[in-house]
Design goal:
With 479 residues, this protein is of the alpha+beta class. The protein contains 14 helices and 23 strands. Keywords: FAD, Flavoprotein.
C-alpha cells in the first residue's frame, strides 16, 4: 500500500494556503493621486516573530523557503511572485522537468558543467546539497525518479506537474505563504537593520510596504532581481544569453533537416574575438534543423562561448569534424579501400560503413565537391578522395546568428560569486541578504545542471536563514 501523502493540484494548494494576517499601511494610487489606506498583508500576528521575504517562486526560491521554514518553524516565510509559481519548472525538459543529473558524483566533474562557476563550485557547495541529496529529497516525498543513460533525472510520470505539486504541497504543509501577482519593486534598509520592501500589484493599483529580518533574492534571470541586488550594493555582470542554437548560412542544410549525428567535434572561431579559448571545442551529438545546428554539442558550445558570442554579435565560423574517432589518414585509407572494392558502384550510392553516416549527408558532402550524377568510384581521383576526407574532418559553416533553445532561457551573468559566501549564500555586502539560483553569475549546460544549482543554492540559503532565525529565537527566549 502506498504510504506517501497524496499530491493535490497546484490551484488547490494555492487557493487553500491558510495564512495569519497583520494590518499594514500602504499608498493606493488612483487618478494620478496617492491615498494613504490600510491593507491586510498575509503575515503572522506575532510581531516578535521574525520574517523572511523570498523574491521569486522558482526552483531556488520555493526550495529555499521550504528549507528555512523546516529549520525554523516559527519564522514567517513569505514568497512574493509576480507571475505563476515554478513556471520554469513547468516548461523544462519539454514539460518533463529534468530535475538534476545523476552521473556526476565527483564535485570537480560536476562543477565542470558550469561555464560560469566551474572553479568556485568545486568546493563545499555540492557537498552541502548535491544531486544525490536532491533525488533523495523528492523520493522521500513520494516522487518516483528515473535516471536516463546520459545522466538526466526525470520523474517517472514524465510530467513536470509531479515536481511542482510536490514542492507546493511541501510549502503548504510547512506554512510557507505564497503571494502571486505581486512584484517587489524596491527595497531599503531601516534604522533597525531590517529590509523595508515595497510591493506593487499593478492590476489593482496599490502599493504596500512590509518589513523583513531576512531577504532572499531568487528571481532567476529577471531584471527585477538585478535591480534589487544593485540597489543593495551589489554589482552585476551584464547578462547575455546562454544555451542557444546556431543559425547557419548554408541553404543546402535545409535538405538535411532532422538528420542527427551521434558524435561530432565542433570548434568555433569568432569574428571579433582574437584569443583562443579551449572550451570553444566540444564533442557530442548534433542535430541539423531547418535553420542550422542544434543538439547537446551546440548547446554546450553556446554556453561556454556565451560572452564571446555576444561580443561577436553571433557571427563566426563553425568547424565540424563528422568522424571524430578517426584520424584523417584513416579516413583516406577507408575511402581508398572502398574505391578498390566497389569500383563499378556509383559514388552517390555507397560509402565506407566505418563513417557511420546517413545517405542524405553523404550526398551533401559530394555536392560540396561537385561529385554528382553517375560518377563511378573507379573514376574518383586520389586528390578528390583527399578533399572528401578533409571535408569530413574539417567542414566549415558560416554562423550568422543564434536561434532559441525551446523555452529554456538561461543567461550568463548576474551577481558575482565573489560578492557572496557560497557556504551560506549570504551577501558579503549586506548582512541577512541571501541569493540563490540564476540571479547569480552561475549557469550550467543542459542535463539538469541549472536546476541543481537552484536546489543547492536554495537549500544552503534556507539552512543559513533558518539557523539564524533559530538562534535569534533562543536569544529572545532567554531575555
Amino acid at each position: 500500500m502506498n504510504t506517501f501523502p497524496r499530491f493535490v493540484s497546484r490551484s488547490e494548494i494555492i487557493s487553500n494556503i491558510s495564512t495569519c494576517t497583520k494590518n499594514y499601511a500602504y499608498f493606493r494610487i488612483s487618478n494620478n493621486r496617492r491615498r494613504y489606506c490600510a491593507v491586510t498583508v498575509s503575515l503572522s500576528t506575532k510581531s516578535a516573530e521574525e520574517t523572511l521575504v523570498v523574491v521569486g517562486s522558482g526552483a531556488a526560491g520555493i526550495y529555499g523557503a521550504i528549507r528555512a521554514k523546516t529549520i525554523a518553524p516559527d519564522l514567517n516565510v513569505v514568497v512574493i511572485e509576480k507571475g505563476k509559481p515554478l513556471s520554469k519548472v513547468k516548461i523544462s525538459g519539454g514539460g518533463r522537468c529534468n530535475v538534476t543529473n545523476g552521473h556526476c558524483v565527483d564535485n570537480v566533474i560536476l562543477a565542470g558543467n558550469y561555464p560560469r562557476g566551474n572553479k568556485e563550485l568545486r568546493g563545499s557547495f555540492f557537498n552541502m546539497h548535491g544531486p544525490t541529496d536532491t533525488m533523495s529529497w523528492f523520493s522521500d516525498r513520494g516522487v518516483e525518479l528515473t535516471t536516463e543513460n546520459d545522466g538526466r533525472v526525470f520523474p517517472v510520470s514524465n510530467s513536470s506537474s509531479t515536481i511542482i505539486d510536490c514542492l507546493l504541497s511541501e510549502a503548504k504543509s510547512r506554512g510557507v505563504v505564497l503571494q502571486t501577482g505581486k512584484s517587489v519593486t524596491s527595497v531599503s534598509m531601516t534604522g533597525g537593520g531590517k529590509f523595508s520592501i515595497k510591493i506593487e500589484k499593478r492590476t489593482v493599483d496599490y502599493v504596500e510596504y512590509i518589513e523583513a529580518n531576512y531577504m532572499m533574492i531568487a528571481t532567476g534571470s529577471s531584471e527585477q532581481g538585478y535591480k534589487l541586488a544593485n540597489h543593495l550594493g551589489h554589482s552585476i555582470v551584464k547578462p547575455v544569453p546562454s544555451l542557444f542554437t546556431f543559425k547557419i548560412d548554408d541553404f543546402q542544410l535545409v535538405e538535411l533537416s532532422g538528420v542527427t549525428f551521434p558524435k561530432v567535434r565542433v570548434k568555433l572561431k569568432l569574428d571579433t574575438v582574437q584569443k583562443s579559448i579551449p572550451e570553444h571545442t566540444q564533442v557530442g551529438p548534433m542535430l541539423v534543423t531547418h535553420w542550422g545546428f542544434s543538439g547537446p554539442v551546440i548547446l554546450r558550445l553556446s554556453a561556454w562561448g556565451a560572452r564571446e558570442l555576444s561580443e561577436s554579435v553571433y557571427k563566426g565560423s563553425l568547424l565540424v569534424d563528422f568522424v571524430p574517432d578517426l584520424h584523417i589518414e584513416d579516413v583516406k585509407s577507408f575511402l581508398i579501400q572502398h574505391k578498390n572494392k566497389f569500383p563499378k558502384q556509383k559514388v552517390v550510392n555507397s560509402f565506407p560503413s566505418e563513417f557511420g553516416l546517413v545517405k542524405r549527408f553523404w550526398r551533401f558532402i559530394l555536392e560540396h565537391e561537385d561529385l554528382v550524377g553517375d560518377l563511378l568510384w573507379a573514376s574518383v581521383s586520389n586528390n578528390l578522395l583527399i578533399s572528401i576526407a578533409s571535408h569530413l574532418k574539417n567542414c566549415s559553416f558560416r554562423v550568422k546568428g543564434k536561434g532559441q533553445f525551446k523555452d529554456e532561457f538561461v543567461t550568463a551573468g548576474g551577481v558575482p560569486l565573489a560578492e557572496i559566501s557560497l557556504n551560506t549564500m549570504e551577501s558579503r555586502i549586506q548582512p541577512r541578504l541571501f541569493f540563490a539560483g540564476e540571479v547569480l553569475n552561475v549557469d550550467g549546460v543542459t542535463g539538469g545542471f541549472n536546476f541543481q544549482n537552484a536546489w543547492s543554492g536554495g537549500y544552503i540559503a534556507g539552512t543559513s536563514i533558518g539557523s539564524l532565525a533559530t538562534v535569534s529565537d533562543l536569544k529572545e527566549g532567554a531575555l
